[in-house]
Structure formats: C-alpha cells, structure tokens
Amino acid sequence: MASGARMIRVMVVDDEALIRTGFRHILEAADDIEVVAAVPGGQAVRTAQERRPAVVLLDIRMPDVDGLSVLADLRGLPDPPVVAMLTTFGMDEYVAAALHSGAAGFLLKDTDPEHLPSLVRTLADGGTVLSSEVTRTVVDGYLNAGPQQDAVRSLDRLTDRERAVLAAAAEGLTNAEIAARMHLSTGTVKDHVSAILAKLEVGSRIQAALLAERAGFLRPPRDQEEP
C-alpha cells in the first residue's frame, strides 16, 4: 500500500467459523483492507466498540442472536460503522427489514470473492452495494411501495444542490465520485448526504434513491424519453 493511503478497517460477523476465516483471507489479500475482527454475532457490538471498524459485514441469520437486532445496535453507536448484510437467503422480508434499519448493502454469501474488496471500498466511501439477486426485490418490493404524492412532498424539502447529490447517489456513485463530478470536497458531499437522509427521514442512501424514484425525480421528462 502506498504511503499515506487509507487502510479500511473491517469486521466480519458470522456464527460459522469457516465463513469468518474465508472472508478474512479474501479481504486481507487486499493491501488497503485490514480485518480488525471476525466474531460470532453475540460479540459483535462489544467488539465494534473496542475495535472501531469502518465497515461491518454482518450475517443476517445467526442462531445465537438476531442479525437485525445487531444491526440496530451497531447503527446506534456514537460513531456507527457502515454495515452490509450477509446471507444465503434472498427473501423479501429480510432485504426490506435490513435496508429500513439502515444497512448500506445486502450481499449473498456466494458473491464472487474477487469482487469483495471492491465492494468493501465502495461501502467505506459512502456507497451502497446490492447483490444482483436482491436488486429486483428492493426495487419491485415494498420498499418501492407507498403513496407517490408523499414521496413528491418529501423531495420538496431538498435544496437544488441536495437534489443534485441525490441524483448522483442514485446512480451508484460514491462520495468521492460525486465530489469529483460536482467540484466539491468529499466532506461537503458527506454533509449533503446526511442532510438528505435527515430531510427525507430515511436511514440509507438506497431508501433515499427509491423514494426519489417513486416521486418520479429520477425519470426524464416525458419529452426527453425514448420514443
């Protein structure tokens, strides 16, 4: 790793030792990622407080503790880590519940190992990640349901700059990529994202993007649509 480059601190939470060991080996092969802990669910919150990871990969279904409860506890910490859920299940209720609780992503455990380091980098940079198998569930499921007019009213709370940041985030751009596009500092983009989530009363960028889609904000005007 180049001198001065950021080291991304990651914690893996899974009750299967084989899964924890596998993820550790895959991620630590990257020069810019350090797995600071790999623990079962019951140790997750205390270990996060002690080790202060930037990114947590958290199993959503564990025998000793509910992954969604662990997610809520992690998100309630004073300086909460970014959390992506790990699962072998693509069930709608788990996807929706995790994202409503502030998860920044949802990955199946059989995700291509070659992709894991780049997905962790995206999470650390403020982006969101979804396995392709669950994307349709998120877009077409009940996260995308609800009165359209309510969504429009929510978007009316945003400034023009915040709308521009939201549109870029909905494209899947990270904070650094948004900053480069809009000629802003990364810190300013983070502040805008925080303001957007607060004004829209949502817990994640994914929820904000879905709300914007429901309001019609991400669709081009009718006269610009393809014939």
From TrEMBL:
One biological process term from GO is: phosphorelay signal transduction system
CDD domains reported in the protein's UniProt record: LuxR_C_like (cd06170), REC_NarL-like (cd17535)
Q: What PROSITE patterns would the database entry show? A: HTH_LUXR_1, HTH_LUXR_2, RESPONSE_REGULATORY
UniProt keyword annotation of Transport present: no
InterPro entries documented for this protein: CheY-like_superfamily (IPR011006), NreC/VraR/RcsB-like_REC (IPR058245), Sig_transdc_resp-reg_C-effctor (IPR016032), Sig_transdc_resp-reg_receiver (IPR001789), Tscrpt_reg_LuxR_C (IPR000792), WalR-like (IPR039420)
Identify residues that carry 4-aspartylphosphate: D59
Q: Where is the HTH luxR-type domain?
A: 151-216
Write the protein's name. DNA-binding NarL/FixJ family response regulator
